[in-house]
Structure formats: structure tokens, C-alpha cells
Amino acid sequence: MTALHYLLPTLFLTVAATQAGELTLEAKPFTVSHSLKATALPESFVPIRLDAKAWTTFEIVSIANHGSAVKKGEPLIVFKTDAVDRKIADSEQALVGAELGVVQAELDLATFEKNLPEQLLRIERGAKMAAEELAYFQETRRKASEETADQSLKRQQQLLASYQEELKQLLKMYEADEITEDTEEIILKKQHDSVASAEFALRMETLDHKRMRSVTLPRELITLTEKSEDAALQLSKAKQDLPRSLELKKLEVEKQKTALKRQRDELADLEQDRKLFEIKAPADGLFYYGSIENGTWVTGDMPKVLTPKAAAPLAKNLACFIPSASKLVIESFTNQGDAQALEKGVKGFAMLSGKSEVLIPVTIAKSSRIPNPQGAYSVTFTAEWPKSLNPAPGQSLDVSVISYSNEKAIAVPSKAIELGVKGWTIELKLADGKTERRVVTRGKSTGELTEIIAGAEAGQVVIVP
Hints:
The protein has 465 residues and is α+β, with helices and mostly antiparallel strands. The protein has three domains: 1-43 and 327-465, Elongation Factor Tu (Ef-tu), domain 3 (Beta Barrel); 45-74 and 281-324, no CATH class; 84-272, Helix Hairpins (Orthogonal Bundle). The protein has helices at residues 3-7, 82-176, 182-274, 302-305, 336-341; strands spanning 22-24, 28-42, 46-49, 60-63, 68-70, 75-79, 278-280, 285-289, 291-293, 296-298, 317-323, 328-334, 347-352, 355-367, 377-383, 396-413, 418-420, 423-429, 435-439, 441-445, 449-454, 461-463. The strands form five sheets. Strands 2-12-15-14-13-16 form a six-stranded antiparallel beta barrel. Strands 1, 17, 18, 19 and 22 form a five-stranded antiparallel sheet that branches. Strands 3-11-8-5 form a four-stranded antiparallel sheet, with no helix packed on it.
């Protein structure tokens, strides 16, 4: 008998047949075994992926071969760096300008904030002076100007009257003499000139007086009123605008600071991404294309994508590094029924495809009770690898384990047991030849055979449909 036959015993029931459809029960060995397809995978590995924050184009210059053995520090993947280096240099230069801009903006803000009270004070002072000038004009200066104009006009009128009277007296005096002397002629001419000059001065003063009252003073009132109103409006506007301008300058400074922080963060991200442009082996080990995810080695299109001059995809597992010190475990997937039976600690054997003559002792290290999205349950085995084997990650194996064994079990063909209103039942043949439906307690099942742990015993005859 071969080792495989020893490990995977045929499940059978030894019964004595009395007639067709009747089986006599006997206590015999009963086992539940499981055969699984599995894969050898490393217990620990380093996924290689490009989780870049700022840079998006990674053109491959060189890449180690799939499955190649590499030494610590050797390059695994090298990417073209020209564009990212230029971008970093440009970002550094732009950052210097942005930092200077923030310093200048803060200085301007501090100066504006310091001068704001003085600006308001000057505007308030101007508005107050304009209002005072208007009030003084309305209350005092206009009346004084009118009185001054009236007085000037009156003086000119008096002066003319005085000159005219003097001329009149001179004419009377000189008319008394029959002969007018040359001196008298001179005096009379001079007096006539004085009267004419006074008449002209009075005429001009009359014009000025009229314009002063009807034009100049009303216009000055309008000018002073408008000036006062403008100053008051400017003050009201400044009281709102200057504080608002201060807040806007503060917001602008904060905006520049935020932009500066973003530039710094972007530069830091670029510098961090720059480290991804040469991926080196962290230790001695193997370099594999694709990724190991949830107990499965997945390659997808990576062998086609990972070539020189190609652009490597981002945010995706490209390859994995397997340290030499990492142990190989055996990963498998099974259905729900087997998963419920395969508990931690259950032992068995594995056989490497193509090396079935070498048995590999295995032990269940972990058995999932939750299905993956495909409805399968993962089972992880640890292995005692024989020295004669040198398995590689990703190789296939056949695993066999026995989850249950009973040396003296009563078992019936699964089709002989039915579920009814009272539970599980089998049909037994009685001594008088009649049959009876008997309630039983079922145990483990292989699919074809089901263990009966209560309700039936050796020697009884069960009717098999």
C-alpha cells in the first residue's frame, strides 16, 4: 500500500447484506478527510508599490528579473528622474519667492495696522476743521464780511461827497474873484480829478459790494458746506473702510501663508516621492512581480507592464520582495463545510506538485470562519519542510488532513437518513420483518456516509432507499 493510500483511506462501511436494500450495521473505523489545493507563500514579505503624493509619472529605466535573487542594497526598480528633479528645483526657487512675499506682506500689515489710528485721527481732524470753518462763516465771518463791504461802500460814498463839497466851495470862492489865476486853475483841476477818481472808486466799490453779497459770500457758503459734508462723508467711510482694509490685509497675509504652507507641503511631497525613484532590496531575498493578497499570489498584467520605458501604475502593488529569512507557509481555500471542520492544530501532510513521493508534515495555523468575497474560506498551514526539498514561493501543493476519526463508529449511507418533524430518522427492520422509523442523533459526515452517535447500534438492519 502506498503512502498516499495510507493517508487517504477509502471511507467505507462494512455491513452484512441480507437482501437488496438492507444493511446490517457494524462498528468500524470512520474518518473524515479533506483534500485541498494549496500554494507555498512567504510568511512575511514587503509589497512594492508607488504611493506617490505629488508625482504621477514613473518611467521605468531598469528592473530586476522576476524571481531573481538579490542582495541587500541592490536596485530592484529604477525610474527616470530628469523631470522630477527639474520640478523640485523650480519648486525650491518658487518657495523662496513666496517666503519673501509673506515677509513683505507681514511688514506691510504691521505698518498699516500701526498707522491706522493716526489716519483716522487726521481724517477726523480735517472733518472737524471743515465743520468749524462752516460754522464760523455762518455765525460770524459772513456777517462781518457784509458789514465790511457795507462800510467800504459807505466810506467811498462819504469820500466822494467830501470831494464834491470841496469842489463846490472852491468854485464859489473863485467865482467871487473876477479873474481866475493860474494857481486857482491848478487847484480846481486837481479837485475835479479827485472827484472823478472818487466817483470811479465808488462805482467799483458798488460793484464789489454787490458781488460780495450776491455771489462771493453765497459761493463761499456752498464751498464750505460741500467741504464739510465731504469731510464728514470721508470720515464715515474711513471708519468703515480702514478697519475693513485691515481685515482684508490680514486675510491676504493668511492666504499667502496658506499658499506658502501648501508650497512647502508640495515640495516635501515631491522630495518624498523622489525617494521612490530607486527601490532597493532591504535585505537578501527574492524579487517577484505581482502581489500576494489574502493568501493568493496575483500577477495580473504586471509582467507585461513592468518593462523598461513603460510607465509603472500608481497606488497598486507592483511586485514584492521576499526576504531570505522569511519562512514559507501553505495557503489554501476551501468551502464552508470543510472550513467548519478544519480547526487550528489539525495536522496532515502536503505534497509538492511533481514531488508527491516526499511527504511534508503540516499543521493548521489559522482557519478563517468568514468567507472572502468569492465565498471561499482561507486556511493557512505551517510546514516542516524536508531538507530534500527546496520549494519556491508560488509553487502548488496538494494537502490532505483528517479532521475526525472514530475507530468504532456506527455509520449509514447518507441517503438512508432523513429529516422529519421529529428530527433525523432512519428506517430499521424489526425481528418480525416489519420496519420502524427510528429517531437518531447524527454525527460527522463524509458526504456519502453519516455517523450515527445515538439511536442505532451494531447488529441492527437499516433499510437503504
